[in-house]
Amino acid sequence: MIDLAIIGGGPGGYVAAERAGAKGLNVVLFEKRELGGVCLNEGCIPTKTLLYSAKVYDYAVHGDKYGISAPGATFDFGKIVDRKNKVVKKLVGGVGSKMKAHKVRVVKGEAKIKGRSANGIEIECNGETYYAVNLLLCTGSEAFVPPIPGVKEAGDAIVTNREILDLKEQPKSLVIIGGGVIGMEFASFFNSLGTEVTVVEMLPKILGGLDGEISSMLQDIYAKKGIKFNLNCKVTEIRGNEVVYVDKDGKTLSAKGDKILMSVGRRAVTAGIGLENLGLELNRGAVKVDAHERAERLRRGRCDRILDAGAHGQPRGRSSR
To answer: Is 86 helix (H, G, I), strand (E, B) or coil?
Structure first.
């Protein structure tokens, strides 16, 4: 019998597994991709690694401001991506070593909850059945791709934060739909390397959840570097590599890019896991509770929503990682 089964090997899942294993519990951790989740593989770590390379290049190109001259400074896009992959691989390997050190069994595959039985909570993965006394959900989040007309037909021109990290070649132009944290990270990186970047944002400012003064300051800095901003604009259609949008005055405009980054937010990964087999009712990906249970959980300092462990504990629907 498993003392604790954990679905999701991101920061929430692997830390919980490590702590439980250290206390002597029999722990099984299910992860369908790589240990580390979004943070280590598709979010914080790889983007910051890329941004650091871009910063080093910026220093070389604009070093004359500091009395440093580096004429003929160049970059190798392939090597920048390779370095990012090495950093990610090293950190993911470190998480794996921690799991082994604390005797946590890691099962690579997509786990599904089958329900409750006399043997405990029944979980199926890779054709094998597991029974656990306790279950911890740390399924994280995934990029939300809205059903904009033409998205499916655009094929490889559309990328999310996952696909854009593994591009083999630098795009000459990039259109980013969404001016949140993720979109701005990639806008900064590609702009520093010379890619023509255009941002289309529905809100009247970038980084909607951020302080307005800071947001405006950052936008001014990016605009001076050449990033084009189209705010108060709603995307209505994707035509191949062209984004069609309507501005606040109702005028239809468009922007073309070799790649189109879809960065309009994230949603909790709960579909298809089998939560309904535990008698849990979902509401937009969150576990639905009654007023009494909600009040009791709040009193105890617990959250009544499924948390996105890959977003460092941010509730479902936040665009930050």
So the answer is: helix
